[in-house]
Amino acid sequence: MPPAVGRAVFLGVRHHSPACARLVGRAIEELRPAYVLVEGPADMNDRLGELLLGHRLPVAVFSHYRDETRVATSWAPLCDYSPEWVALRDGHASGAEVRFIDLPAWHPAFAERADRQTNRYADAEARYAEATERLCAHFAVDSVDALWDGLFEVTEPDDDGLQSRLDAYFELVRGDAEADLGDRAREEYMASWVRAAVARAGERTVLVVTGGFHQPALRALSYLDDGQGDAVSDWPEIPAPPPGALGGSFLVPYSFRQLDAFAGYQSGMPSPGYYQQLWESGPQAAAQGLLRSVAERLRARRIPVSTADLIAARGLTQGLTLMRGHAHETRVDVLDGLAGALISDDLDRPLPWTGRGTLSAGTHPVVVEMVAACAGESEGRLHPDTPLPPLVHDVAEQLARLGLADPAPEGPFTVDLTDAAGLTRSQVLHRLHVLGIPGFTRVSGPADGSDPVFTERWEPGRAGGREAALIEAGAYGARLDEAASVVLGQRARASGTQAGQLAGLLFDAVLCGVGPLCDELLEALAAQVGQVPELGPLGEVLTAALGLWRHDRVFGVARGRLLGSVVAGAADRVFWLAEGLHGGTGVDFARLRALAAARDALLHAPELLSVTREAAAEAAARIGRDPRAPADLRGAAVGLRWALGVPDDPATAVQALASRAADTLGDWLAGLFALAREEVTAGATGDGEPLIDVLDGIVSALTEDDFLTGLPALRQAFAFFPPRERERIAQRLLERRGKHGSARSLLRTTADPLLLARARALEENVARLLDRHGLGAAR
Q1: Side-chain half-sphere of 173: how many Cα atoms within 13 Å?
Q2: Where do runs of H (alpha helix) occur along 450-588?
Q3: How buried is 497 (Cβ within 10 angstroms: 0-12 exposed, 13-18 middle, 19+ buried)?
Q4: Chunked in runs of 10, what are the mean pLDDT values of the chain (779 residues)?
């Protein structure tokens, strides 16, 4: 008989354990309890009927919570062999009153589980790994799962010692260690339900089904002395979310893939497909079914598996079972036997079932398929009468109205953003994308606010998991636009001063057309750009905001006041950061793009900026003269002054630079070309000589060694010019040398110019060496 306190009988279980599920069913049949208390969210007690509607399992109770400082989501999965499910189903069928007795998932007691998402049944005993490690060492097994199977899962169904072994196991795992504050709060709350149920049950029994880790503490906390019963007969109060917070729970479809520890699930048993067979047919049939499933899966993927291989695997499995002292073949016995028979390669890492966690990159393909075969393919389905959040109905109505409901369009389809109906279609699809709802993928469209593309191409995909994703997204709002707004707002707060993320977020908000949220995002951007610590990410924000402010013809945000404040703040910050930047070598394209964006703001939106052209030119002059500034930034500063029309002579600067450090000439030119490419090709220097001619003279005067040193950076610098402009430059160089030929053919050589230059230098060195020793060719 399970341990009891008064009339309370405590069953400690492992979540999703077939052996524990059978034990729960047997206890309900024998005890016929008045109450069955189950570890689960107490705020679902008024809706337990929803769980018993006749769903196809697995399903999960999805709980959500949101306030100004915290977002929490949690899943409590239930499958056929979950002890909690058997307690609900069999307890209800026996006439018992069934109650969930744990705190709601939003409660701060769960806050330490994970950053944002968690699972209610995450194994608490995982924090006390020392005890389980000692047990694994004692029984000579690799993992807790292998230990559990040998001790509990492959025993006989009528094993009378199962309960005592479970109690001993959980007592050892819990030991004398204190639970953390969260588990302590949960256990005290669950104990209050036990005391109330015992007081109400009179002479009848109360069955308490919780995770085994909690059982020892609950037994102690639930102790009642004579005369306490009347004082605790009322059910405990179910906590409600604090004012201003939003929370709730809904049922969602779940799948064996989500239940699998190898896919990242943190609690319960791995390989749910195997344990489903174990639950339905027993250990021998489950072992044979696993062997068959692996063989079928490997053959379906054209991995050879012969009859001889399977015979060898069967023999190895039976031998391992006998050697390990198991009453029946366990999951690990079968997998080890299959691995020994099917894998002849040397493995560079332990087999995944010797531990827990997701599969790592590089796992042997046969092992990957074996793990997948263990998981199974089952997917849950909710009963049609299951209440759903309003968002599900809102999305269904919108997709149907726009012709995007199931059956979805066949093949890719195009959306015209200049058409009102097309824009509405696009906004709905982007809102679904922001919420992570599967079913549609954008394959082309505008990349940012300045992209002159006015159509999008979308591709319908598999809608599997859409219902579950929509139910979970219902935590963010009752309407699609509201839910998308909330998610984007959360992303904005999480981004902080990560300007690159905020720039993408801004365009996502524009694509979603979420209305007031755009103002919220812009206000956040305007406040945060003054704190961005790096030029590159800041340039992304400035480029995105300026592009939308100048060019938007579709989304209705052009010339917006808040966009203008983002542009102004970002441009000011660019000049402040650029003037203080020192050190570093090479070309940083991100910071050059930031300066180019600031240049465009000065040229095309001067009325927005607090910095004038004159002030910007003065700042650029200081940067250009600063010997500590990176070469590319100094070149960009000269280019900025040229682009702003401020009198300057870049030829003087480039000549001075070449006389000091030829190896930085290319970096300096990259900055110049990034900011003043058009001026370089069309304009002249202060002396009236085209800059290209000045550069030609400088490069021609370089020694062979200096030329080879600077050539990679020079090539990188001239890559700023498009092909047509490079051809004009090449033609100019041919003319300076009095040569007549095709500049286009000169540019289209298949040989690497750097290799050609090195080959020429090598030939000249060889010629000099031959001449020195009198071996040169007669001239």
Answers
A1: 27
A2: 466-473, 480-495, 499-512, 516-528, 535-551, 561-579
A3: middle
A4: 68 90 93 94 90 92 81 86 94 94 84 52 57 83 87 77 85 73 88 92 91 85 56 80 83 89 73 91 90 89 87 90 88 89 80 79 84 88 91 92 78 87 91 91 80 84 82 88 85 70 77 72 74 83 83 74 83 88 84 91 89 89 89 89 77 63 77 83 56 73 69 72 73 75 64 62 70 65
